[in-house]
């Protein structure tokens, strides 16, 4: 793989939520027309497209919704000359070499599986290569880290089903993502998975005290396993509406580097502002109010803002080799080591 083809990886995007809704209105080539131009400007050439199931579809319609999302992605690939779905490391190399934008399919919560582990193999055959067990709610696999306290019993770690999914994922070569798990579930993953694990979009609890973020010990555990943490553009914590800034994401990146090293950090921007118009009433009620707060200081909310982050790395003293690690090489290393 040529050095010049290494650019920038975003390991968490809800782009499929945008695509499926626009295609339902009769649009085609949504990714090509609405997403590719901004990604080109940002220098993004690889992105993880997550399957997230809105509260309104859980549980009865979760599987159908997930399959509709996969169908939309595959249709977009057929229609759009600029994108390519990547199922192994060789696909990534081909995509980068050809100048296309590579897309990797991921679960953000295993609600589509309900409690049937056999369905994981089906999604693997469809291209799924990254699996986060939960979002910020309880499912059959375990408990997620809630955005705010809710009416529920005591939180638990992973269920027997959750452990079975970890074992199945490791056998298939699906990369496990610990983002959104509560603390108990995080440590269950570390106990039961031998391969590297990642956190696709998680920030540092020491800088932003919220259970959604990773403690120093968790950051170290991911790094010691050879994994990578993708920092994101927003911090779910009280009065954090102004956190969507270049300095904010760089502060968290600096902290991961301080705790774990530059070989264990990357980007999972998790831009979500474009999704606000799509969220159901149930989802609005579940999300923290801070998610809807904006500030004049916000300068990191979309792909076009990403070049300022790279410039910020340079201003903070990161050299070219370190920026390449952060931008692409760290996650590429893990993809290559886990995918079969």
Descriptive notes:
The chain has helices spanning 15-24, 30-42, 62-79, 89-98, 118-126, 160-172, 183-192, 216-224, 246-260, 281-286, 306-315, 320-338, and strands at residues 8-13, 44-51, 83-85, 101-108, 128-132, 175-177, 229-231, 265-267. By secondary structure, it is α/β, with parallel strands linked by helices. It has one domain (7-338): Alpha-Beta Barrel (TIM Barrel). Strands 1, 2, 3, 4, 5 and 6 form a six-stranded parallel beta sheet that branches. Strands 7-8 form a two-stranded parallel sheet. α1 packs across α3 (62-79) and α9 (246-260) packs across α11 (306-315). The relative contact order is 0.14. Mean pLDDT is 93; it is low at 1-5.
Write the layout of secondary structure elements.
Blueprint: E1 8-13, H1 15-24, H2 30-42, E2 44-51, H3 62-79, E3 83-85, H4 89-98, E4 101-108, H5 118-126, E5 128-132, H6 160-172, E6 175-177, H7 183-192, H8 216-224, E7 229-231, H9 246-260, E8 265-267, H10 281-286, H11 306-315, H12 320-338
Helix pairs in contact: 1-3, 9-11
Please sum up the structure shown:
With 340 residues, this protein is α/β, with parallel strands linked by helices.
Largest sheet: 6 strands, parallel
- Beta-strand percentage range: 5-15%
CATH architecture: Alpha-Beta Barrel
- Kindly report how far apart the N and C termini lie: 18 Å
CATH superfamily: Metal-dependent hydrolases
Radius of gyration, taken over Cα atoms and rounded to an integer in Å:
18 Å
On the 0 to 100 scale, the average pLDDT is: 93
- Spell the H/E element sequence: EHHEHEHEHEHEHHEHEHHH
DSSP helical segment count: 12
């Amino acid at each position: 793989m040529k050095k010049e083809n290494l650019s920038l990886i975003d390991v968490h995007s809800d782009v499929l939520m945008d695509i499926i809704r626009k295609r339902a209105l009769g649009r085609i080539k949504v990714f090509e027309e609405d997403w590719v131009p901004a990604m080109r400007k940002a220098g993004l050439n690889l992105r993880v497209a997550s399957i997230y199931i809105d509260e309104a579809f859980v549980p009865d319609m979760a599987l159908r919704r997930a399959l509709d999302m996969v169908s939309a992605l595959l249709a977009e690939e057929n229609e759009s000359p600029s994108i390519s779905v990547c199922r192994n490391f060789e696909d990534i190399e081909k995509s980068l070499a050809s100048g296309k934008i590579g897309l990797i399919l991921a679960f953000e919560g295993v609600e589509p599986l309900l409690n049937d582990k056999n369905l994981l193999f089906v999604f693997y055959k469809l291209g799924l290569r990254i699996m986060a067990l939960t979002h910020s709610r309880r499912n059959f696999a375990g408990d997620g880290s809630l955005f705010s306290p809710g009416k529920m019993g005591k939180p638990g770690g992973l269920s027997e089903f959750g452990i079975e999914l970890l074992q199945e994922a490791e056998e298939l070569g699906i990369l496990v993502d610990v983002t959104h798990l509560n603390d108990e579930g995080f440590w269950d993953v570390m106990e039961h998975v031998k391969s590297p694990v990642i956190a696709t979009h998680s920030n540092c609890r020491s800088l932003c005290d919220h259970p959604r973020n990773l403690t120093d010990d968790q950051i170290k555990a991911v790094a010691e396993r050879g994994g990578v943490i993708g920092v994101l553009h927003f911090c779910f914590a009280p009065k954090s509406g102004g956190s969507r800034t270049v300095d904010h994401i760089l502060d968290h990146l600096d902290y991961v580097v301080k705790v774990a090293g530059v070989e264990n950090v990357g980007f999972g921007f998790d831009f979500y502002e474009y999704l606000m118009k799509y969220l159901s009433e149930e989802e609005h009620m579940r999300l923290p109010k801070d998610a809807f707060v904006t500030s004049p200081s916000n300068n990191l909310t979309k792909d076009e803002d990403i070049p300022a982050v790279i410039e910020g790395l340079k201003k903070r003293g990161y050299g070219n080799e370190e920026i390449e690690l952060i931008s692409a090489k760290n996650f590429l290393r893990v993809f290559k080591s886990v995918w079969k």
